Amino acid sequence: MKTKYLIFGIVAFVILIAVITNPNEDRHKSAVKSKILSLTLTLQKPVDEMGDVNSPLAQAGMGLGSMIGGAIVEQLVNTCVSEDNYVLFSLTKITWNGETRIIGVGVFGNVFLTDKIDETLKKGFGGNTEEEEMKMKEREQEKMDSLFNDAAKSVKEEEEIK
Fold first, then answer.
1. pTM higher than 0.85 for the full model?
2. CB-based contacts of 148, cutoff 8 Å, min separation 6
């Protein structure tokens, strides 16, 4: 009999903790903002490839870009991200072009975003999914092969003329 009360007590305690620590809408929005900002940083070309990192102009440009990007992300998240609270847990939802999708779940004070959000955000920020990257590489290779074949043909034709 004591075992039943103990199990009931533990379950009640876990439920109480889940209710108390269920993340609010601000936590959900903050998690999405963090994810978008970290993704935009990984999608940027390395600054070393673009030129001198230490020049004042480069530093000013990076600072300005970060400020503008942060403001845009803030506005985007505030208008498109919402949270549905189910007392024990909550869902992170994003509405884009009239379509609403669940992109995460909040429980015990944490917000967990799905892996699909990376692909969605990459597409939205001009990045490509792995499948699209492969297709692009194949098309580039086909173009290079075609150019090489055309160049080889014209060299051969010139040799035949001589």
1. no
2. none
Convert the pLDDT of each residue in 86-126 to its tens digit.
999 999 888 877 888 888 899 999 999 887 777 666 665 55
**Claim to verify: residue 24 and residue 59 sit in the same structural domain:** yes
| Same-domain pairing of 94 and 162 | no
Q: What long-range pairs does 126-133 form, CB within 8 A, spacing at least 24?
A: 126/43, 127/43
**Same domain membership, residue 134 and residue 82:** no
Distance CA 88, CA 127 (A): 36
With contact defined as beta carbons under 8 Å apart, do 77 and 29 qualify? Answer: yes
**DSSP letter string, 82-104:** EEEE-SS-EEEEEEETTEEEEEE
Same domain, 158 and 102: no
Place of tokens 């209710």: 19
